[in-house]
Design a protein that fits this description.
Elements lengths: L2 H26 L1 H9 L3 H40 L2 H29 L4 H26 L4 H21 L6 H7 L1 H44 L1
Helix pairs in contact: 1-3, 1-8, 3-6, 3-8, 4-6, 5-6, 5-8, 6-8
């Protein structure tokens, strides 16, 4: 990918993360925003909303770092296991382990501490549904069925890892952030997975145009010296 197209990719991924987090925060953290709206404190309301948008930008950076780490991991996995088929079976195993870990070591302790099981069930449904929808769309865009498992692996395993990292050190309003931070990570990861081929193709096109211009200049210089 060329630097210009990477910059566009990075910028639009940031916008996706900021917009999704800002919108979702109005619903998930309504108890935070509601007093400002009721009392007409629009400055404080906008400051709080901008903070949530900035938090979405941060989630976007985490998601992008995770995405490029996954691209490296995927290539290493294929090289280690020799065939894509075997690597896909390994990815399926890791998906199952990740879902088990989320349910038994993250969600169930929260339920035992008094949090509603509906809360965690809803988060699990959002994670899996978002992953499946993105993976199916990836197959439709590429026409390659074998990318389904890799897309699911990225959307479930990598997103969960990023989600865990993003929540580290948060003790205040932890349950709200557990719900809030999932949405920008899912949105940015889906965006990256689906649009990266477009930017790669545009980069190839730009390089071809650049090479054509260089060739034309060389031809002009050759004719001028003839």
């Amino acid at each position: 990918m060329t630097i210009r197209n990477w910059a566009k990719f990075f910028f639009f991924a940031m916008l996706v993360g900021g917009a999704v987090n800002g919108i979702c925060s109005l619903f998930i953290r309504w108890d935070f925003f509601q007093p400002y709206i009721t009392n007409g404190h629009w400055g404080e309301f906008l400051a709080g909303l901008l903070w949530m948008v900035f938090l979405g930008f941060t989630m976007s950076v985490i998601a992008q770092a995770g995405f490029f780490a996954y691209l490296t991991l995927h290539q290493v996995g294929v090289n280690i296991f020799r065939t894509l088929t075997l690597w896909n079976w390994v990815q399926l195993l890791l998906i199952a382990i990740t879902i088990f870990d989320v349910i038994f070591f993250r969600f169930i302790p929260g339920i035992k501490e008094g949090q509603s099981w509906i809360f965690y069930l809803g988060l699990l449904i959002v994670l899996i549904f978002g992953a499946v929808a993105t993976a199916v769309q990836k197959v439709k865009l590429t026409g390659k069925k074998h990318v389904l498992i890799s897309a699911l692996f990225f959307m479930i395993v990598i997103t969960t890892l990023e989600w865990t990292i993003a929540l580290m050190g948060r003790d205040e309003n932890i349950n709200e952030y557990v719900a809030l931070l999932l949405f920008p990570l899912l949105a940015v990861n889906a965006y990256q997975l689906l649009v990266l081929p477009k930017y790669n193709a545009k980069s190839d096109e730009d390089r071809q145009k650049l090479e054509a211009r260089r060739k034309a200049r060389r031809e002009q210089a050759k004719n001028a010296n003839a």
